[in-house]
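Friendly challenge for the regulars: who can give me the structure tokens for this chain first? No prize, just bragging rights.
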Amino acid sequence: MNVIGVDVGSYAIKVVGVDGKPSTPRVYMAGSAYNPVGQFLPNDEAQFNQLVESLRSLATEHSFKNKPVAVALPESLAYTSIVSMPYLSDAELASSIHWEAEQHIPVPLDEVQLEYQVLYKPKKGSVGEKMQVLLVASKKDLVDRVMLLFQSAGLELVTLETGLLSYYRSVAAQLPIDQGVAVLNMGALSTDVLILESGKMMLNYTIQTGGLVFTRAIQQGLGLTGQQAEEYKRAYGYDPDQLEGKVKQALDPVMNVLIGEIRKAIQYYQSSGKGAGIRTIALAGGGSYLRGLTPFLTQALSAEVMVINPFQGLVTDKNMVMPKDGASYAVAMGLASSSK
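First reply, four minutes later:
Bragging rights claimed.
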């Protein structure tokens, strides 16, 4: 079954459609619309209805009304943890997963919908190797409201997963598997860090710093309006050679916080004894296009930095125009590929 990937970001809603065989997927649709309420799931009923109308309009524009959709929960609304466990059979894992979840999920399990997925399972009897299991939990009332949102928009929600799993699915094929890699999914409100070792997910971490924080820093530092600050961010970015370095100077405090948090995640990973250093940083999300960011991260983290394009190497419909900001479609692309 082909599904439409719908990524409801706090800045924009991204949609991707993929069909064809798993071995030869074809992207036939990609589009976006501004999110008028600035969040994934508003509590205010007027804003909720406004978001419903935006989703309905987007579905009409891109011809996927009444079609099945896959949606990702932001990491801020889910409890996600990658845990290492001794080798267990499927039956043993099913019987012990709730006990394991109680150690990692900070709310009573009867309040959440719990899902798990085995990310890596060594051969039985392997010495020193452990299973990697992804635990995902979300409040039951939240899941019900997400279902209502898409039902109200005339869409059939068939898959609801964490954004971490979505963007991993869309970028994994482009990453080196012989080294440690940190994927940074840079959104409007936060930056999700996913650390991979030999292609396997090892650690996830969310930093509460994203594109809107950059915009506010420029706004306050240079005395601009919000719209002017957004334009300055897009035009000059974090480039010291632009506008006499004034925009970079305004962004310095925020960037120092971001780098500090990324280093903290990497150091925690290294101290756990799971692997060596991180040699590659892969950027996804709209924030990855900030001018001057790539050379800064290269120097600050002593790693090769690459911007991911989830559409790279895929067959596309001859009539569609590919988005220029491909990295910001990583979650939507991963969702559209979830049924392949």
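The mean pLDDT is 92. The domain at 4-213+250-336 is CATH 3.30.420.40 (Nucleotidyltransferase; domain 5). Your move, everyone else.
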